[in-house]
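Our platform keeps sequence and structure together, in a single record for each protein. Nothing more is needed to write down the fold, since each code stands for a local backbone conformation. An entry from our holdings is shown next, in its original layout:
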Amino acid sequence: MSRSFDDVASVYDRTRVFPPEAAERVADTIERLTRAGPETRFLEPGIGTGRVTWSLIRRGYAYTGLDVSEAMMDQLRRKARGVPNRLTLVGGDAAAMPFPDRSFDVVLTTHLLHLLPEWRKVMDEIARVLRPGGVFLYCREVSRRDAPLYEAWRSILEAHDALPLPPGGSESDVLGYLTERGASLETVTGATWTVRQTAGELLEYFERRYFSSLWQVPDDVFPIALAELREWCGHNLGSPDAEVTSDLELRITAARGLAEL
């Protein structure tokens, strides 16, 4: 990918809607899956702005976040000002974590592993820093019902032979890794929510390439594809104020036994 999340840090939360009530449900689910208590030590590689886990952080757990993007973590630092917490933020690479073996009771990733070509090294590091009896939580956003605008965009990119593939591990890749490592898996829905935006908003986000999947579209193809998407919206949605809705789910897999191998 030719861009960094530093480039979108200031708009990241605004362009990736995650309602507070969904965040609270996710925090409740994580507490149940991990049986978290006052002494539970959490680590989140790729914490970014803490968009998904902020409600959990606010509950006062000993929570360490790791990220290569200081700009993204700066957004989280702003959220944390004046809010009681036990948050520690560390700059670093998830494929070479600066933590001792068996340091954490819970390690979780959210919207991370599909972005990293070295995702297996990240998983090996997670297994290293997780204590025996600890839990790894693999969290990912999945679409329950995509808006037709997104389907149209995929069709346009397919026609240009430019549909991007995730550079890192897919859901089946990660679950396969965990199974091969002998972990026992439990998958649940942490939250569901509906995102409502206007066609005009989304077209602006696409034009500014706020989403990481857009960074992989070749520069010579992107403006042509975007013009075709605008044309599709004009024919099918009419006004830029037309509402575009998508139904999303945060899916969580709890892996136990990973650190014992």
Remarks:
- The first strand starts at residue 41 and ends at 45.
